[in-house]
Structure formats: C-alpha cells, structure tokens
Design goal:
Blueprint: H1 2-13, H2 23-58, H3 67-85, H4 88-96, H5 98-108, H6 113-122, H7 125-153, H8 156-161, H9 163-174, H10 177-206
Helix pairs in contact: 1-2, 1-7, 2-3, 2-4, 2-7, 3-5, 7-9, 9-10
C-alpha cells in the first residue's frame, strides 16, 4: 500500500508540470485514491484470514478430520472464491464472519484428537489479529498522508468550504479499528454530497 501512496503523490506532483487541476478535480482524485487503497487493505486482510483458516485445516491429520475441520474447510473455500472474484464488500463480510465461524466451532470442541489439533492452531489467533491491525494501520497512515498532500494543493477558500470533508478524515484518524468501516463509509458518502453541491453552485452561476 505504500506504493499506492507514492503513486498518488507522484500524480499530484505532476500538477506542477501539467495544467493545474481544479480543486474539485484534486478532491475527486483523492476520493479515487482512498477507495483504491481501501480495496487493497480489505483484500490483504481477507487473504490473511483465509490463510489462517486454511492453515488450521492443514494442521489436522487427515485421519483425525471430522465436522469441525469440515466447517473450517468450507469457510476456507468461501474465502478462496471471494479472493478471486468477490467485491470489497464481500471480502469485508468474509473477514467479519470469522467470529461467527469460531463461535460455531467452539460449540463442537471436545476431547477428540481433531479438537486438540484445532485448539493448538487457534492459539495463533492473536498473531492474526496483529497482522490485521497492521494492515489497518498502514491504510490509516497512507489515507492521512494522502489527505495532507491533497490539502496542500487546495486553495484556502476551498479548504474552508470543505470543513466537513476534513472533519471526516480527522475523525477517522482518531478512531479505532472497529469503527473504521463505518467511518470510511461516512467519508465516501461525502463524495456524492460534494458533487451535488458543486453542481448546484454551477447551475446558480449560469442563472
């Protein structure tokens, strides 16, 4: 994702050589950049989740595999399909469903060799959580740095007019991982709102 930020910054730097983009175009470019790096983050998180689930299945000797392993394998298979052709929403839902899968698995755990193998693998959940948090941290860093670069390109008047946009970015930056999906959706909702406001202003200018 660092490469995504470098790409975005390089594109912004081209405004020095090319005809200057309007403030509206710069803001639109940032929204596009934000969606792109968010898609990358969710894909990476879904990949890490799928990798952990599949490794849990693989840790159970074939002769010991039963209904619990089958549940995990079904979940791993869904992840494989989602990674290949799923939307970002589908990938996020796959990650979220991990907790439901774990709850169902816990109900089936017993003293069998299968359960013992599964429990050993589940000790790695903390490691998965740390990896997911790292991906989220990378996104937040790139998102905030990209916003700062965008702001440098905007006129003081536009910055003042777009206070709601910058408040949304700041709110995201200060929040924790569980709130990020909701707050990012709020941020994206501003794109259509800002576009509508710009259209209204243009129509008034022609009257």
């Amino acid at each position: 994702m660092r490469c995504s930020l470098i790409f975005f910054l390089s594109v912004l730097s081209l405004t020095c050589a090319a005809p200057r983009k309007t403030d509206d175009e710069i803001i639109a470019q940032f929204f596009s950049y934000a969606r792109t790096i968010r898609d990358i983050e969710i894909h990476n998180m879904a990949y890490l989740t799928h990798k952990f689930v599949q490794s849990t299945v693989d840790s159970v000797p074939e002769e010991n595999r039963g209904p619990i392993t089958a549940d995990f394998q079904n979940y791993a298979n869904r992840g494989k399909d989602v990674l290949k052709q799923g939307t970002t929403r589908m990938k996020y839902a796959y990650i979220e469903n991990m907790s439901n899968t774990l709850e169902e698995v816990k109900k089936k755990l017993s003293e069998t060799p299968e359960s013992q193998s599964i429990v050993k693998s589940l000790l790695g959940l903390m490691g998965l959580a740390m990896e997911l948090a790292e991906e989220d941290s990378k996104f937040t860093t790139n998102f905030v740095e990209g916003a700062a670069q965008m702001k440098e390109k905007l006129s003081p008047t536009t910055i003042a007019q777009q206070s709601e946009l910058f408040n949304a970015i700041e709110k995201y930056e200060r929040s924790d991982l569980p709130q990020h999906e909701h707050l990012f959706d709020e941020f994206l909702s501003l794109e259509n709102f800002l576009s509508f406001c710009n259209q209204q202003q243009k129509m008034k200018a022609f009257k």
